[in-house]
Amino acid sequence: MVTKSRATILLADDDAAIRTVLTQYLEQLGYGVRATDSGSTFWKWVESGAGDVAVSDVVMPDADGLDLLPRVKEVRPDLPVIIMSAKNTVLTALQASERGAFEYLPKPFDLGDLADAVSKALELKISQNSSPDTSADMNLPIVGSSSAMQAVYRLIGKVAPTDLSVLIRGESGTGKELVAKVLHEFGPRRSKPFVALNMAAIPADLVESELFGHEKGAFTGADFRKDGRFSQAEGGTLFLDEIGDMPLTIQTRLLRILQEGKYTRVGGLRELNTDVRIIAATHRDLEAMVSEGSFREDLFYRLNVVPLHLPPLRERLADLAELVPALVTGLSSPTIPPKRFTKDAIDALRQHSWPGNVRELENFLQRVMAVLPQAVVDASAVQSELGAVNGSGHIFEEPFLAPQDLEHVLQTQMQRFFSENRDGVPNGKIYTHFLEILERPLIKQTLRATRGNQIQAAAMLGLNRNTLRKKVQELGIKVVRGHGTYIDDGS
């Protein structure tokens, strides 16, 4: 192994001030440094066999550091290359990793980070990774240049080319499924399916069938054989969202699959082999759940091979300048034209805490785009719309019930329902009754959020516009638009 006193660092950066600072710092650490502002000179040094570690910027007058990487790896596969870049996007991190970079350092970075990277590069052999180039004009699903997101990008860049299990942690609305999709699309299974399943959205008695499938006749209503999500994701990636809501019995079955790669359909006898990459996500404290016995410890460690934390939006408000135009572009349509948010409008958005994270921001922007007539949104418009929040912290005028509170309300309603139907409850009556109980306030809340705009409300609810209008009529909800207000029947 090369010692510090003998190691030479090749440094390429077109910024003279940065070259000077990095050269002096590395020399103080005991390294020899050869520095240049030219990509061609850097390449000649590499080709001649000079240097033990290379540190290169992406943009140089006569070359692109990322474009040089495959050539470097071809002629000098043992030369660790550390890539620096002021273009701080997840795509840069992914390209650096895919093309064989030992480390990616987004500018500005701490000099200590460079020292650590150089030290590790001298001690460890890097493995060769080559993957197809990714188009630079790709519509990136993850946006933000804050230091919090740079840490996420670096980890994504390292993990995406592998087949390791990843556990994505973060509050609701931070974009966990988007990250899972990026890990899949830039990984070795990109040509195979990406299948997502939200554990919290499936009744407990249906989870097993959804995951593993079932045979015909396995239970009442199983009139045909059904493939589960593991079968659908074969060869690709299975994203298990809200993994903390998975029943303990299913956790045991999932653990066996992770250990042995085998499972059986519900009601089946034949063992099936499976080959999928598991990416899980949760907003829950799984460690606490392990301690209380509601989540298997062995499964936790199987899933938590690579932990990835997504920061809440309130911790990266600087990213709003990039997030807002990106979201506006994605939300625009023939019926909802895009709008431009001024710098003052972005500053006004930073005054909100966004407890619902990026999802709440997206919903707010949808409402503004649908409701406001002007093409340019300024600070006063943003402040006016945020004023409709009424202190709840969300774009909805009334906060939603917590799950435990909702369960208590339903339990109370159920007791009342049975007391009123002591002579017997007709089949199907309970579902219809309680669906009406939940559906009416849900639609009313969404209409309040859009100030009576039914087109926008339908989009937020995921309903056809005509379906929403029919439900509004059936449920007796009165909508009056005018002077920026929404009025219902008062109930």
Summarize the structure.
The chain is of the alpha/beta class. The protein has helices at residues 16-28, 39-48, 65-75, 90-98, 111-123, 147-159, 176-185, 207-212, 229-232, 248-260, 286-292, 297-303, 320-331, 343-349, 357-371, 379-387, 403-420, 429-449, 454-461, 465-474; strands at residues 8-12, 32-36, 53-57, 59-60, 63-64, 81-85, 103-106, 166-169, 194-198, 213-214, 226-227, 237-241, 262-263, 272-273, 277-282, 306-309, 340-341, 376-377, 480-482, 485-487.
Largest sheet: 5 strands, parallel
Please report which band the strand proportion falls in: under 5%, 5-15%, 15-25%, 25-35%, 35-45% or over 45%: 5-15%
Can you give the helix content as a percent range?
A: 40-55%
Number of strands: 20
| Overall residue-averaged pLDDT value | 81
In angstroms, what separates the terminal alpha carbons? 76 Å
Radius of gyration over C-alpha positions, nearest whole angstrom: 27 Å
Strand order of the largest sheet: 2-1-3-6-7
Morphology: globular
Helix count equals: 20
Q: Uncertain segments of ≥5 residues (pLDDT<50)? A: 125-139, 389-405, 482-491
The helix-and-strand class reads alpha/beta
